User: Fold this.
Amino acid sequence: MAGAREFKRRIRSVQSTQQITKAMKMVAASKLRRCQMRAEESRPYTETLQNTLADLAAVATEIKHPLLAVRENVRKVLYVVVTGDRGLCGAYNTNLIKEVGDAIRHDERAVESGIVAVGRRAADFFKKRGGLIAEWTGLSDYVNYSDAKEIADYIMEAYANEQVDEVYLVYARFVNALRQIPTVSRLLPVATPQAEDGETARKEEYIYEPSAKAILGSLIPRYVGSQVYHAMLEGKASEQGARMTAMGNATENAAEIVRSLTLEMNKERQAAITNELIDIVGGSEALSK
Assistant:
Protein backbone atom coordinates (compact mmCIF):
# COMPACT_ATOMS: atom_id res chain seq x y z
CA MET A 1 0.00 0.00 0.00
CA ALA A 2 2.97 2.30 -0.55
CA GLY A 3 1.04 3.90 -3.41
CA ALA A 4 -1.92 4.74 -1.13
CA ARG A 5 0.39 6.29 1.48
CA GLU A 6 1.97 8.47 -1.22
CA PHE A 7 -1.47 9.61 -2.38
CA LYS A 8 -2.46 10.47 1.20
CA ARG A 9 0.73 12.50 1.64
CA ARG A 10 0.04 14.47 -1.54
CA ILE A 11 -3.60 15.03 -0.55
CA ARG A 12 -2.55 16.40 2.86
CA SER A 13 -0.06 18.70 1.15
CA VAL A 14 -2.67 20.07 -1.26
CA GLN A 15 -5.20 20.48 1.54
CA SER A 16 -2.66 22.51 3.54
CA THR A 17 -2.14 24.77 0.52
CA GLN A 18 -5.91 25.02 0.09
CA GLN A 19 -6.30 26.24 3.66
CA ILE A 20 -3.68 28.93 3.06
CA THR A 21 -5.26 30.16 -0.18
CA LYS A 22 -8.72 30.16 1.41
CA ALA A 23 -7.44 32.24 4.32
CA MET A 24 -5.71 34.66 1.93
CA LYS A 25 -8.93 35.01 -0.05
CA MET A 26 -10.84 35.92 3.10
CA VAL A 27 -8.20 38.44 4.16
CA ALA A 28 -8.17 40.03 0.69
CA ALA A 29 -11.98 40.18 0.70
CA SER A 30 -12.02 41.98 4.05
CA LYS A 31 -9.39 44.49 2.87
CA LEU A 32 -11.14 44.94 -0.47
CA ARG A 33 -14.29 46.32 1.14
CA ARG A 34 -12.44 49.15 2.81
CA CYS A 35 -10.12 49.85 -0.13
CA GLN A 36 -13.04 49.88 -2.56
CA MET A 37 -15.00 52.27 -0.36
CA ARG A 38 -12.06 54.68 -0.07
CA ALA A 39 -11.38 54.58 -3.82
CA GLU A 40 -15.01 55.25 -4.71
CA GLU A 41 -15.29 58.04 -2.16
CA SER A 42 -12.22 59.80 -3.57
CA ARG A 43 -13.51 59.88 -7.16
CA PRO A 44 -15.96 62.82 -6.86
CA TYR A 45 -13.39 65.03 -5.11
CA THR A 46 -10.64 64.14 -7.56
CA GLU A 47 -12.82 64.73 -10.63
CA THR A 48 -14.21 68.02 -9.29
CA LEU A 49 -10.74 69.31 -8.42
CA GLN A 50 -9.44 68.29 -11.84
CA ASN A 51 -12.30 70.03 -13.66
CA THR A 52 -12.01 73.16 -11.51
CA LEU A 53 -8.29 73.44 -12.10
CA ALA A 54 -8.64 72.79 -15.83
CA ASP A 55 -11.34 75.46 -16.17
CA LEU A 56 -9.30 77.93 -14.16
CA ALA A 57 -6.21 77.29 -16.26
CA ALA A 58 -8.23 77.66 -19.47
CA VAL A 59 -9.86 80.96 -18.48
CA ALA A 60 -6.88 82.60 -16.79
CA THR A 61 -4.61 82.17 -19.78
CA GLU A 62 -2.39 85.08 -18.73
CA ILE A 63 -1.37 83.27 -15.56
CA LYS A 64 1.98 81.47 -15.82
CA HIS A 65 2.88 78.56 -13.61
CA PRO A 66 5.81 76.13 -14.04
CA LEU A 67 3.53 73.09 -13.72
CA LEU A 68 1.21 74.38 -16.46
CA ALA A 69 3.97 75.00 -19.00
CA VAL A 70 3.68 72.74 -22.06
CA ARG A 71 7.17 72.14 -23.46
CA GLU A 72 7.48 71.83 -27.20
CA ASN A 73 10.78 69.97 -27.11
CA VAL A 74 9.99 66.92 -24.96
CA ARG A 75 13.20 65.14 -24.09
CA LYS A 76 12.29 62.98 -21.09
CA VAL A 77 8.98 61.42 -20.01
CA LEU A 78 8.40 60.22 -16.47
CA TYR A 79 6.06 57.31 -15.70
CA VAL A 80 4.78 56.90 -12.15
CA VAL A 81 3.91 53.19 -11.96
CA VAL A 82 1.63 52.09 -9.11
CA THR A 83 1.91 48.33 -8.47
CA GLY A 84 1.75 46.09 -5.41
CA ASP A 85 4.52 45.09 -3.01
CA ARG A 86 3.50 41.43 -3.07
CA GLY A 87 2.45 38.86 -5.62
CA LEU A 88 -0.24 36.17 -5.49
CA CYS A 89 -2.68 38.49 -7.26
CA GLY A 90 -2.82 36.95 -10.71
CA ALA A 91 -1.68 39.09 -13.63
CA TYR A 92 -2.30 42.40 -11.82
CA ASN A 93 1.34 43.54 -11.57
CA THR A 94 2.30 42.03 -14.91
CA ASN A 95 -0.46 43.87 -16.75
CA LEU A 96 0.62 47.23 -15.32
CA ILE A 97 4.26 46.69 -16.22
CA LYS A 98 3.19 45.59 -19.70
CA GLU A 99 1.10 48.76 -20.03
CA VAL A 100 4.17 50.88 -19.28
CA GLY A 101 6.20 49.00 -21.86
CA ASP A 102 3.49 49.48 -24.48
CA ALA A 103 3.26 53.21 -23.72
CA ILE A 104 7.02 53.62 -24.10
CA ARG A 105 7.16 51.62 -27.35
CA HIS A 106 4.20 53.43 -28.90
CA ASP A 107 5.64 56.87 -28.17
CA GLU A 108 6.93 57.89 -31.59
CA ARG A 109 8.88 60.90 -30.32
CA ALA A 110 11.90 58.74 -29.39
CA VAL A 111 12.26 60.41 -25.99
CA GLU A 112 14.07 59.17 -22.92
CA SER A 113 11.85 57.46 -20.35
CA GLY A 114 12.17 57.38 -16.58
CA ILE A 115 10.30 55.32 -13.99
CA VAL A 116 9.12 56.20 -10.50
CA ALA A 117 8.02 52.91 -8.95
CA VAL A 118 5.33 52.92 -6.29
CA GLY A 119 5.39 49.29 -5.16
CA ARG A 120 8.12 46.65 -4.93
CA ARG A 121 7.03 44.70 -8.01
CA ALA A 122 7.60 47.65 -10.34
CA ALA A 123 10.81 48.58 -8.53
CA ASP A 124 12.29 45.08 -8.85
CA PHE A 125 11.34 44.85 -12.53
CA PHE A 126 12.78 48.19 -13.61
CA LYS A 127 15.92 47.75 -11.52
CA LYS A 128 16.76 44.83 -13.79
CA ARG A 129 15.52 46.43 -17.03
CA GLY A 130 16.85 49.92 -16.33
CA GLY A 131 15.21 53.32 -16.21
CA LEU A 132 14.33 53.38 -12.49
CA ILE A 133 14.76 56.87 -11.02
CA ALA A 134 13.06 56.59 -7.63
CA GLU A 135 11.01 54.05 -5.69
CA TRP A 136 8.52 53.94 -2.84
CA THR A 137 8.01 50.46 -1.39
CA GLY A 138 6.67 48.90 1.77
CA LEU A 139 3.66 51.23 1.93
CA SER A 140 0.63 50.30 4.01
CA ASP A 141 -2.34 48.50 2.51
CA TYR A 142 -4.36 51.50 3.67
CA VAL A 143 -2.90 54.39 1.70
CA ASN A 144 -1.94 57.53 3.60
CA TYR A 145 -2.14 60.94 1.96
CA SER A 146 1.26 61.81 3.43
CA ASP A 147 2.86 59.10 1.27
CA ALA A 148 1.09 60.40 -1.83
CA LYS A 149 2.14 63.96 -1.02
CA GLU A 150 5.77 62.90 -0.69
CA ILE A 151 5.63 61.29 -4.14
CA ALA A 152 3.79 64.30 -5.58
CA ASP A 153 6.39 66.71 -4.16
CA TYR A 154 9.16 64.71 -5.82
CA ILE A 155 7.31 64.77 -9.16
CA MET A 156 6.57 68.49 -9.02
CA GLU A 157 10.16 69.33 -8.14
CA ALA A 158 11.48 67.23 -11.03
CA TYR A 159 9.06 68.89 -13.46
CA ALA A 160 9.63 72.44 -12.20
CA ASN A 161 13.41 71.96 -12.49
CA GLU A 162 12.94 70.65 -16.06
CA GLN A 163 14.43 67.29 -15.21
CA VAL A 164 11.40 65.78 -16.95
CA ASP A 165 9.09 67.29 -19.56
CA GLU A 166 5.96 65.14 -19.13
CA VAL A 167 4.62 63.00 -16.29
CA TYR A 168 2.17 60.11 -16.65
CA LEU A 169 0.40 58.04 -14.00
CA VAL A 170 0.11 54.30 -14.63
CA TYR A 171 -2.30 52.48 -12.34
CA ALA A 172 -5.20 50.01 -12.37
CA ARG A 173 -8.65 51.59 -12.28
CA PHE A 174 -10.89 49.46 -10.10
CA VAL A 175 -14.18 48.29 -11.65
CA ASN A 176 -14.95 45.19 -9.60
CA ALA A 177 -13.14 42.21 -8.11
CA LEU A 178 -12.96 40.53 -11.52
CA ARG A 179 -12.00 43.55 -13.60
CA GLN A 180 -9.23 46.09 -13.17
CA ILE A 181 -8.35 48.35 -16.11
CA PRO A 182 -4.68 49.38 -16.58
CA THR A 183 -4.78 53.14 -17.12
CA VAL A 184 -2.21 55.66 -18.36
CA SER A 185 -3.15 59.28 -17.68
CA ARG A 186 -1.14 62.47 -18.10
CA LEU A 187 -0.44 64.19 -14.81
CA LEU A 188 1.83 67.06 -15.86
CA PRO A 189 1.53 69.48 -17.49
CA VAL A 190 -2.06 70.01 -16.40
CA ALA A 191 -4.32 69.69 -19.44
CA THR A 192 -6.92 72.38 -20.14
CA PRO A 193 -10.30 71.38 -21.63
CA GLN A 194 -9.20 72.65 -25.03
CA ALA A 195 -5.98 70.65 -24.99
CA GLU A 196 -7.66 67.53 -23.64
CA ASP A 197 -10.96 67.35 -25.51
CA GLY A 198 -10.38 69.48 -28.58
CA GLU A 199 -13.10 71.89 -27.48
CA THR A 200 -12.88 75.60 -26.95
CA ALA A 201 -12.30 76.81 -23.44
CA ARG A 202 -15.22 78.08 -21.46
CA LYS A 203 -15.97 81.78 -21.89
CA GLU A 204 -17.49 82.55 -18.50
CA GLU A 205 -15.81 85.33 -16.60
CA TYR A 206 -14.85 84.67 -13.01
CA ILE A 207 -13.91 86.96 -10.18
CA TYR A 208 -11.17 85.40 -8.09
CA GLU A 209 -10.41 86.16 -4.48
CA PRO A 210 -7.62 86.72 -3.57
CA SER A 211 -6.38 86.28 -7.19
CA ALA A 212 -6.30 83.71 -9.96
CA LYS A 213 -2.54 83.37 -9.57
CA ALA A 214 -2.83 82.68 -5.83
CA ILE A 215 -5.62 80.16 -6.40
CA LEU A 216 -3.62 78.35 -9.08
CA GLY A 217 -0.56 78.28 -6.85
CA SER A 218 -2.64 76.66 -4.12
CA LEU A 219 -4.66 74.28 -6.29
CA ILE A 220 -1.94 72.81 -8.50
CA PRO A 221 0.08 71.10 -5.71
CA ARG A 222 -3.17 69.87 -4.21
CA TYR A 223 -4.28 68.60 -7.61
CA VAL A 224 -1.08 66.66 -8.19
CA GLY A 225 -1.22 65.18 -4.70
CA SER A 226 -4.88 64.20 -5.09
CA GLN A 227 -4.21 62.53 -8.44
CA VAL A 228 -1.36 60.45 -7.01
CA TYR A 229 -3.42 59.64 -3.91
CA HIS A 230 -6.40 58.60 -6.02
CA ALA A 231 -4.21 56.40 -8.24
CA MET A 232 -2.80 54.68 -5.15
CA LEU A 233 -6.30 54.11 -3.74
CA GLU A 234 -7.50 52.67 -7.04
CA GLY A 235 -4.38 50.53 -7.19
CA LYS A 236 -4.86 49.08 -3.71
CA ALA A 237 -8.51 48.26 -4.39
CA SER A 238 -7.53 46.64 -7.69
CA GLU A 239 -4.72 44.67 -6.05
CA GLN A 240 -6.98 43.29 -3.32
CA GLY A 241 -9.69 42.45 -5.85
CA ALA A 242 -7.19 40.65 -8.08
CA ARG A 243 -5.73 38.80 -5.09
CA MET A 244 -9.17 37.73 -3.86
CA THR A 245 -10.04 36.39 -7.31
CA ALA A 246 -6.68 34.63 -7.73
CA MET A 247 -6.84 33.00 -4.29
CA GLY A 248 -10.45 31.96 -4.92
CA ASN A 249 -9.39 30.28 -8.16
CA ALA A 250 -6.44 28.65 -6.40
CA THR A 251 -8.74 27.29 -3.67
CA GLU A 252 -11.08 25.81 -6.27
CA ASN A 253 -8.16 24.29 -8.18
CA ALA A 254 -6.81 22.75 -4.97
CA ALA A 255 -10.21 21.19 -4.27
CA GLU A 256 -10.26 19.75 -7.80
CA ILE A 257 -6.76 18.31 -7.31
CA VAL A 258 -7.84 16.72 -4.01
CA ARG A 259 -10.83 15.12 -5.73
CA SER A 260 -8.63 13.83 -8.54
CA LEU A 261 -6.01 12.43 -6.13
CA THR A 262 -8.72 10.80 -3.99
CA LEU A 263 -10.15 9.11 -7.08
CA GLU A 264 -6.74 7.86 -8.14
CA MET A 265 -6.01 6.64 -4.59
CA ASN A 266 -9.29 4.71 -4.51
CA LYS A 267 -8.49 3.15 -7.86
CA GLU A 268 -5.05 2.16 -6.59
CA ARG A 269 -6.58 0.70 -3.41
CA GLN A 270 -9.22 -1.25 -5.35
CA ALA A 271 -6.54 -2.61 -7.67
CA ALA A 272 -4.44 -3.72 -4.68
CA ILE A 273 -7.45 -5.40 -3.04
CA THR A 274 -8.34 -7.12 -6.31
CA ASN A 275 -4.79 -8.45 -6.67
CA GLU A 276 -4.84 -9.75 -3.08
CA LEU A 277 -8.17 -11.52 -3.70
CA ILE A 278 -6.78 -13.06 -6.87
CA ASP A 279 -3.75 -14.32 -4.93
CA ILE A 280 -6.00 -15.76 -2.18
CA VAL A 281 -8.30 -17.51 -4.67
CA GLY A 282 -5.35 -18.83 -6.65
CA GLY A 283 -3.72 -20.18 -3.49
CA SER A 284 -6.96 -21.77 -2.32
CA GLU A 285 -7.43 -23.54 -5.68
CA ALA A 286 -3.84 -24.77 -5.59
CA LEU A 287 -4.31 -26.29 -2.11
CA SER A 288 -7.58 -27.97 -3.07
CA LYS A 289 -5.96 -29.94 -5.90
Observations:
- Strands lie at 76-82, 112-118, 132-136, 166-176, 179-188.
- The chain has a mean pLDDT of 84.
- DSSP finds six helices and five strands in the chain.
- The first helix runs from residue 2 to 59.
